[in-house]
Amino acid sequence: MSTKPDKVELYEEGILKLELFDSDAGSLNGRKGLNGKYNGEATSVKIFGLAGSGVTFYDDKEFRTEENRVYIEKLTNEPIEVFISKNFVQTDDKIGSGIFFGEEPGKYKWILYKHPKSRLDWEAVLDVILGGTQGLAGRLVSIGGVVGKILNDENEPKSNNYRVDNCSSVKFGEPPAA
Questions:
Q1: What is the pLDDT of residues 106-136, one digit of tens each?
Q2: Are 146 and 102 in contact (CB under 8 A)?
Q3: Which pTM does this prediction carry?
Q4: What does the alpha-carbon distance between residue 43 and residue 27 come to, in Å, rounded to a whole number?
Q5: pLDDT by residue (tens digit) across 50-97?
Q6: Residues in a beta bridge with 37
Q7: Are 114 and 156 in contact, with CB atoms under 8 Å apart?
Q8: Residues 6+ apart with CB under 8 A from 84
Q9: Cα separation of 85 and 152, whole Å?
Q10: Which residue, 128, 95, 94, is CA-closest to 111?
Q11: Are 108 and 53 in contact (CB under 8 A)?
Q12: β-bridge pairing 146-151 and 54-58
């Protein structure tokens, strides 16, 4: 069970733009921050708080699920930096919807929700991560060095975007239901 972090900082190209102390449905784009306007193009984030604290970064405002989002859970009490604008899955394979997970050992675990349309509860997400198939249509894959589940995506546009490239809203605490 995840807890809320103490603070999250959003950086654009190494420049601190926004500090958040709680969830913010945004849109964060255009907000005046510590060093000028935040353009929604966070290249990295710093998360402060105890091990077990988690935060979700959304590509869209109001915690909308039509675009990518990534959940980060800290494994250390030290502050961590995460480069959210880089692909979490290192591949050129193009898919529509999927859920992928990985870990930066000793720092954080992550779950990337790549544009999933399905409404899943957290137990179903855990089932996906652990390789279960009960109640979920899709196929388990290992691409780019990580394991994930490609959901039924035959009729969806495909891309090789496995990141959050326009961080517009941030939610502290528990990981989102897909």
A1: 999 998 887 754 444 445 555 555 544 444 4
A2: yes
A3: 0.81
A4: 17
A5: 999 999 999 888 888 778 889 999 999 999 999 998 888 877 777 767
A6: 32
A7: no
A8: 42, 43, 44, 45, 57, 70, 163, 164, 167
A9: 25
A10: 128
A11: no
A12: unpaired
